[in-house]
User: Which sequence fits this backbone?
């Protein structure tokens, strides 16, 4: 009977530690981080497969299920593909490539990756180096991991990602679409006509030009966008809850319509307002903001 208070104390301490760890994990996910994601250096991985594509390719489709994807610039006029892994894998699990006309398809065959906290079965990582040219279409289905694109020029870029960390740098496109469930996404040095971004929760940052249309939708999390050089003709941003901050360039000339249930809105620009309508300059372009709760700030740069 004397041991019961000690056992109760041990149980209380155990559940206190569990609750603290769960809180840290929850906070990490809310900030767009995956606390269980291990970042591997190239030297820690072993090469499974290497391939060079010499055909003239105008469209690229990648379906990758674990690990991560890096899209880099090639130093010649060929496409170079490397698959790496955290462990040796049977050849039946190596990637599959197929060229049909001018379309290159790359598919991961290492599909049954199992995670248990920090332990997991072998993951595979794709590195593809592309010649510096204009592509018609790039379609990516990215895994929950670290995915990076450095320098890409395409008419259409279409990306689906479940979670993880996405870093996209120096992208030029007529149309760019990102659909992501949760995690971290950093988009910088963009020059696109039409931009569409959707994220359920996490942390999303955009810096660049969206000259025609800018559309972003978040359920919760942190959103930051800095539009440079040319203000878009149309802008549509919606958020259920969270914190958002948008900057548009000095040439912006718009009528902003705000739909707000609760929360705070900061209109950091000269305007004439009537209810939830704010007119800046002549009200030439239509901008729409929608929020259920949270904090939203809209700025016009000088």
Assistant:
């Amino acid at each position: 009977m004397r041991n019961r208070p000690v056992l109760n104390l041990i149980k209380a301490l155990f559940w206190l530690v569990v609750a603290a760890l769960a809180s840290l994990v929850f906070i990490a996910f809310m900030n767009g981080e995956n606390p269980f994601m291990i970042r591997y250096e190239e030297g820690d991985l072993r090469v499974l497969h290497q391939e060079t594509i010499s055909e003239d390719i105008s469209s690229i489709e990648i379906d990758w299920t674990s690990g991560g994807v890096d899209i880099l610039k090639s130093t010649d006029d060929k496409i170079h593909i490397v698959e790496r892994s955290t462990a040796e894998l049977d050849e039946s699990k190596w990637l599959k490539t197929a060229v049909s006309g001018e379309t290159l398809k790359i598919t991961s065959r290492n599909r049954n990756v199992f995670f248990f906290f920090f332990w997991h079965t072998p993951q595979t990582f794709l590195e593809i180096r592309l010649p510096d040219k204009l592509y018609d279409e790039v379609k990516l289905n990215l895994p929950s991991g670290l995915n990076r694109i450095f320098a890409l020029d395409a008419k259409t870029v279409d990306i689906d990602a479940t979670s993880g960390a996405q870093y996209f740098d120096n992208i030029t496109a007529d149309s760019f679409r990102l659909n992501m469930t949760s995690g971290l996404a950093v988009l910088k040095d963009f020059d696109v006509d039409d931009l569409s971004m959707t994220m359920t929760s996490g942390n999303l940052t955009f810096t660049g030009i969206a000259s025609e249309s800018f559309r972003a939708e978040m359920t919760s999390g942190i959103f930051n966008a800095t539009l440079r050089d040319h203000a878009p003709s149309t802008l549509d941003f919606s958020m259920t809850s969270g914190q958002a901050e948008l900057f548009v360039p000095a040439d912006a000339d718009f009528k902003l319509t705000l739909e707000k249930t609760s929360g705070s809105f900061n209109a950091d620009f000269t305007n004439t307002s009537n209810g939830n309508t704010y007119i800046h300059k002549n009200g030439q372009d239509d901008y729409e903001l929608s929020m259920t709760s949270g904090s939203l700030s809209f700025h016009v740069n000088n």
About this structure: Residues 29-40, 114-120 have pLDDT under 50 and may be disordered.
